[in-house]
Amino acid sequence: MVLSVVLTVVRALVPQQSTAATLITGGSAVLTCIAIVIGLVLNRPPSRLPFLLVLGATLSGLIGNLILAYHLSQGVVPYPSSSDIFWLLNYPLLAIGLMMLIRGLSWRQDRAGILDTLIVTVGLGLGIWLLFLQDLVQFDGIPAATRLVTVAYPLADLMILAAFIRFFTSAARRTAIFWQLTASLLTLGVAHIAWVWQNIHGIYNDSASPVFVLSGLLIGGAVLHPSMATFGGGSVAHTGEVTRTRVLLIGSGCLLSPVLLIVDGVLSDGKADWLAASICCVAVFGLVIGRMVELIRTVQDQATQLEAMAYLDALTGIPNRRAWDMELQRRLAGARRQGRTLLVGLIDLDHFKWYNDEHGHPKGDELLRGAALAWRGQLRTEDLIARYGGEEFGLILTCRLSDVDGVMERLRRVTPDGQAFSAGLAQWTGVETAEQLVARADAALYSAKRAGRDRTAVSADPHLADVSFSGVTSSSQ
Questions:
Q1: Which helix (H) or strand (E) holds 425?
Q2: pLDDT for residue 351
Q3: What is the pTM of this model?
Q4: Buried b / exposed e across 319-344, counting CB within 10 Å, b at 16+?
Q5: What is the set of domains in the chain, with CATH numbers?
Q6: C-alpha to C-alpha distance for 101 and 93, rounded to whole angstroms
Q7: Strand-strand pairing, 421-427 and 343-349
Q8: Mean pLDDT over all residues of the chain?
Q9: HEC states along 374-413?
Q10: How many Å apart are CA 13 and CA 210, to the nearest integer?
Q11: Alpha helix segments (H runs only) across 268-360
């Protein structure tokens, strides 16, 4: 950083278009290239391609400067020349390289960030049009090659400013390399706009060159910092969060077009370019609508996720007690309408407290998760298992008592770590409430425990003498 400041100050003090000025400008680019190579070797970033693109951008600018120095030595500087090709190539290489570092070009990962950048860029584009492009396009006395190159420079400015906005508003970690790269983009964009404005207005000097030197050296300092070793690695968590910075940017982008239209009208005695301003306003309006749709979709997705979380047990991933209560009410109502039967069961892992104390809570949690997943895999799609509370699980089965022995035997076989469970079952009578049905299953569960555990107790219809399924039975015997 100190070297960057020193070289920038020296470049500003030496005479313009002198040999010393050329050496400092070219030497700073060489130093930046060397710094990038050293940074790649020492810091070993997780992704090398973005930094190689930045290196290519720096080399491209250096080649352009060398070609310019040659023309100066000959006393004739043609325009356009081959140096313009390398200078213009510098900007897309730099922008793409930095965007790759922050996953800034991925529409699927961060639609909100791209829309925000486009909103501001469209407004800035109107400013670029009014300041530079409008007269160039309408003026007839310019050769085609000259017109094309001259138009390309303001568009390159717009690209760099868009890259700065996208980079600054990204979710990348705010480390030293981030801030130096952000400062480099900003200084490059501002310096280049000043340089283009000077050339369009016939001011042919290199007073902006010190800022170009600073921009390149900032990149060199960034890649030498140890934070390069982790920058750009892994996935960037794009959240689309509406921060104050984003609100300010979106608001500025929305206001730029009408404000520039007013300014243009005042400066041109009411002869404003209303067509260009109208097109930009329509584009910004469409982007804002897209941003609103994206924000609404994000809110809806988050609401859906929260609703799902409210009905799932955090430990086991199966439905929780709240989901069980609601589903039991719904299924009882359906069974009542269609005249179907319904079976409710409560399962309790035997001696779970001892298991927890003996093996530790992590192993206890693992047993609960494993049991829940294993049991769910043995049930049909229309059956439900939920975590009722603690080590208790609830079952809702669409079968008769005569078929339940096979179901319980399958559950016992897949219970993890050689553990056993006690269960209480109750078949719906067709008239009782959900609370009464669960109470009978709970009473049957405690009957199974009192009878020695590792068995299933069935509560028969209290209105019928169904002796074959009443009392305590054990599917493990």
A1: strand 421-427
A2: 93
A3: 0.64
A4: bbeebbbebbeebbeeeeeeeeebbb
A5: 2-110+170-241 (no CATH), 321-473 (3.30.70.270)
A6: 13
A7: antiparallel
A8: 84
A9: HHHHHCCCCCEEEEEECCEEEEEECCCHHHHHHHHHHHHH
A10: 9
A11: 274-310, 321-338, 352-359
